[in-house]
């Protein structure tokens, strides 16, 4: 049994023991998010139902746990279930604990994926200043790269992508896809093609006819740029 399945089971058991233990709801959302990000086996429809159930329960509880609020809010957005509801939960997380770095990280990602630039960078920089040793800071590095890409600062985007790649795990398909976009924008095609080869190795079903790049991205222009970059980097027919 996959480790993520075991951990998810434990978080659900914690909720059964104490339905008001907010951190366990955040744990469930984290497991669902990692499963989706890395295309691990799972029932997408059931995961969506589970995440909505978790979000509804957190709202009903009036929870003020910043970790749970922010990760559930982020995944509501990323799973394309409720953009506004997800953004609202992240804002609640920031208000509940203005010192919780990851809430700013998530807020920055929502902004960057909507085509934002400097506002997103401000959130990412604040997150890294607050928690410089956070092992998930590669998300902030990737976010800064994307924000520079959105502003047309492609050389800067590639430099931040280099930093992110040195920090994040090799199975992080979402991150590699974003790195491809930034490398193509900077005309670093060898790097982009190398990453595309690795993506196809990890996800053999990736084809132009099957890939829907970054469907959670709200900016139509950015979605188009992702697909164009994937094709330039060698996404198979």
Describe the protein.
- With 237 residues, the chain is an all-alpha fold.
- The protein is built from twelve helices and no strands.
- Helix 1 runs antiparallel to helix 2, helix 4 runs antiparallel to helix 5 and helix 7 runs antiparallel to helix 8.
- The protein is globular and about 50 Å long.
Report the span from N to C terminus: 34 Å
Rough outline: globular
H and E string: HHHHHHHHHHHH
- Could you report the average pLDDT, rounded to the nearest whole number? 92
- Name the poorly predicted regions: none
- Beta-strand percentage? under 5%
> Radius of gyration, Cα only, in angstroms?
18 Å
Number of helices: 12
Keywords: Repeat, TPR repeat
Organism: Bradyrhizobium yuanmingense
Pfam family, one: TPR_16
InterPro entries: TPR-like_helical_dom_sf, TPR_rpt, Ycf3
């Amino acid at each position: 049994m996959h480790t993520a399945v075991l951990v998810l089971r434990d978080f659900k058991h914690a909720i059964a023991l104490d339905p008001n233990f907010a951190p366990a709801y955040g744990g469930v959302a984290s497991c669902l998010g990692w499963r989706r990000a890395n295309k691990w086996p799972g029932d997408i429809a059931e995961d969506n139902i589970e995440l909505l159930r978790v979000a509804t329960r957190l709202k009903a509880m009036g929870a003020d746990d910043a970790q749970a609020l922010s990760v559930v809010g982020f995944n509501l957005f990323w799973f394309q279930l409720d953009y506004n509801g997800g953004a609202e939960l992240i804002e609640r997380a920031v208000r509940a604990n203005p010192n919780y770095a990851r809430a700013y990280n998530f807020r920055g990602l929502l902004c960057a994926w909507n085509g934002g630039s400097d506002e997103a960078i401000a959130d990412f920089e604040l997150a890294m200043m607050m928690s410089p040793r956070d092992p998930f800071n590669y998300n902030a590095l990737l976010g800064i790269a994307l924000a520079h890409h959105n502003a047309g600062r492609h050389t800067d985007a590639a430099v931040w992508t280099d930093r992110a790649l040195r920090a994040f795990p090799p199975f992080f398909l979402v991150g590699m896809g974003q790195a491809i976009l930034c490398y193509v924008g900077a005309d670093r095609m060898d790097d982009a093609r190398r990453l595309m080869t690795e993506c196809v190795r990890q996800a053999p079903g990736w084809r132009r006819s099957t890939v829907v790049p970054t469907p959670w991205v709200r900016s139509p222009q950015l979605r188009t740029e992702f697909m164009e970059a994937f094709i330039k980097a060698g996404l198979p027919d």
